[in-house]
Amino acid sequence: MPTRGGAPVIESIVGPDLPPARAVELVADLHRLLDELQTVDLSPCTDAELTEVAAATERAITRLTVAGDRQIDHAEARDLPRTTGCRTLTQFMTHRLRISNPVRRRKQMDATATRTSLGGEKLPPEHPCLAEAFAQGTVGTAHVQAALDVLDRIPGTVDHDVKVAAERQMTEIAEAHTPADITQLGARLLAHLDPDGTLTDDTERKRRRNLWVNRQRADGTAKMTGTLTPELAARVTMLLAVWATPGMNNPNDPDSPTGSVEDADPEQLAAAADRDDRTPAQINHDALNALLKAVLDDGLLGKSHRGLPVQLIIKADLADLIREAGLATTATGTLLPIPDLIALAADVQPWLAIFKDHTAVPLHFGRGKRLATREQRLVSFARPDGEVCSAPGCDQPATHVELHHAHKDWAKGGLTDIDDLAPACPRHNRMVGPKLGQYTTRIARSGTDEGRCVWRLNAEPGAPPNPEHLNRRPDIPTRLTAHLEQVRREIHGRNMSGAEARPDPLLVWPIIDYRPIVIRPLKPGQVYTPVEACLAELLAQN
């Protein structure tokens, strides 16, 4: 989006002869005021005036959120998420509106915004009192979220009039207290509504069940949160009782027994337990990891998923494998440190593919096959950015995508050749077509993006064509190298070694035609070649 003086400039697309919509003019005026407000001299303000200005600014921020919620509702009513190529409203909010936590924002909108149904009917907010206070700016976003966390925990069997009274009570609390106070006082309200817990039935427990694996942190770890039904809680606690015992399933101890404590040798277990310095939480983590590893090894998850084998499928840069540093990527989009990848490969669990510049497997079928083969899917995953859907802004991982005939649709004579295929999630694959709001795709045949899928949103007949887009994921190492070079030049003029600062050399792989060398789980009687020997062989060949 173009900017002027740090503020975005909204360009009207109605044409040069028509005035912009009033909303466009208001937002432009708002940004002009914000430019002045950010730089205005505050020294003439008295203490009381400065306090009031700060408080009024916070109220304005809240009211802007209310206005934004209304605009999101209108965008959803016009089906803008679909016509802009997003799979869901949440994705539209994330990628087009840059909203940091769209799930919580949608929950807030349902509670406090007037929504529009598919039939055009206006739907009142779920919590009208809280919505009114939010619109006036007397409660902020954090207050609303804290109040909703309390109201959502009211049992479903509570009478409607009691729920309405509780909502009004929580609104009063939100207007006069901090978010932390809201949580504490809300707990007292819940205890008053259901002092002995008899109002919480099985239906309520099922409504509140959830399990989330959150996004990975910078170090690759991820936090899991959930609310378990009594049935699942019973199974999990039984698992921990027999697998999460000190000395069992310890990845730091090669002599630690694996599996259930009932199958372990008592003397071996006792010795391993004496060496075990893990915390109870770490023991629980390792027990769950060992159980899922056993499930994968036994093939209980099936033989294939969307054409890919149901195993860990991982791609890595050969240079990273050699220096045992960096990150690999799994088909589910998880980042895996290279040392962990090598440990997995040594245990003969994943599919570890190392790619060369030529191919010895059939990757071109023409009209002989309509659906992509397993080998084609593995090669597609191994391409640059092949771990996600090729549609711009989509982050669906390789395990959730199909292979799309991107150069020419199969029904129009397209070929099932690896250099004509591209990964596309089911929603985006169905959105390719000649109609308005659909996409036209092609494969770039030259340049730095050779072999990648290019997407263009169809425009109205006679209108200028929309720009083409790639799902170009940021090249973090390259950008970091460039920034580091600039910083070193600004500070020292040279890099740390004393030589002229220049970007580190990068290993660039061809776009197409790879030959995968795959390490699969061994069958009885087979001899395993360690991954180090495989790397040594590849280095000798290169």
From TrEMBL:
InterPro entries: DUF222, HNH_nuc. Residues 105-125 are annotated as: Disordered. Keywords: Endonuclease, Hydrolase, Nuclease. Residues 375-430 form the HNH nuclease domain. This is Endonuclease. CDD domains: HNHc. It comes from the Bacteria. The lineage of its organism: Bacteria, Bacillati, Actinomycetota, Actinomycetes, Mycobacteriales. GO terms for molecular function: endonuclease activity.
